[in-house]
Amino acid sequence: MTNTHEANEQTPSRSVVVTGGSRGIGLATAQGLAREGHKVAVFSRSGEAPAGLLGVACDVRDAESVKKALQVATDANGPIEVLVANAGVTDDKLLLRMDEDSFTDVLDTNLVGAYRLVKETVGPMLRARGGRIIFVSSVVAYAGSPGQANYAASKAGLVGLARSLARELGPRGITCNVVAPGFVETDMTAELTEERRDDIRKSVPLARFAEASEVASVIGFLASDQASYVTGAVIPVDGGLGMGH
């Protein structure tokens, strides 16, 4: 992406919401979009955000919490023009040990939470005849992973949701796309044993984990005017891990 001065000349400042934006991919995305001159609200359960970003408390599992958070962001920055649905959780267990709550709780955050956000933001986008919706999925959505049936199902569901919305909303100038990261250097992956990290690196053609900023740059592209004719796409940012799926 270009520097801030050049980007501001090419793309007008927009009102942006990034969920799960207090760390990792979400934080890198929020900071990157802010550097491009956009007005960015970061949604998280804590409501905390670094200087320069609007922190808003939001639990995507709760429809009323979503409505209130979006109202706060709209009052501060104007109608939402870019939505980055990044909030996600894991609860890894082998199927025989996975109770129904473990399955549905992950879907409620990762997939139904995205639905709640889109449901509340799409009205102003329709009236404006334009907008950007970006879902953060995972390589696990199409490659699968033992012990992650719930997580994989939720992230695969985002692809179907995005492609349906791309067809439904496209005639009104709204794009809907998916970014599918692989293994990224985050707090979550930092907890893996070094042996497990080595095994993962061996499976990735680029032989390393991604930096959060590398995923954020792709999200930034999809949020920009340069991506005005990209919709219904699933863009892997996985170092080649998911090739063939």
What is the fold's blueprint, element by element?
Elements: H1 4-10, E1 15-19, H2 24-35, E2 39-44, E3 54-57, H3 63-77, E4 82-85, H4 100-128, E5 131-136, H5 140-143, H6 149-169, E6 174-181, H7 187-190, H8 194-203, H9 212-222, E7 234-237
Parallel strand pairs: 1-2, 1-4, 2-3, 4-5, 5-6, 6-7
Helix pairs in contact: 2-9, 3-4, 4-6
Give a quick summary of the entry.
The protein is an alpha/beta fold and 245 residues long.
Gyration radius over CA: 17 Å
Helix percent reads 40-55%
- What would you give as the CATH superfamily? NAD(P)-binding Rossmann-like Domain
Strand arrangement in the largest pleated sheet: 3-2-1-4-5-6-7
Element pattern in H and E: HEHEEHEHEHHEHHHE
Structurally, the number of domains stands at 1
Largest sheet: 7 strands, parallel
Mean pLDDT: 92
Shape: globular
Structural class: alpha/beta
Provide a descriptive summary of the structure in words.
The chain has helices at residues 4-10, 24-35, 63-77, 100-128, 140-143, 149-169, 187-190, 194-203, 212-222, and strands at 15-19, 39-44, 54-57, 82-85, 131-136, 174-181, 234-237. Helix 2 crosses helix 9 (212-222), helix 3 (63-77) packs parallel to helix 4 (100-128) and helix 4 runs parallel beside helix 6. It is built from nine helices and seven strands; from the N terminus they run H-E-H-E-E-H-E-H-E-H-H-E-H-H-H-E. It has one domain (4-236): Rossmann fold (3-Layer(aba) Sandwich), CATH 3.40.50.720. The protein is α/β, with parallel strands linked by helices. The protein has a seven-stranded parallel β-sheet, sandwiched between helices. 44% of the residues are buried. The model is unreliable at 1-8 (pLDDT under 50).
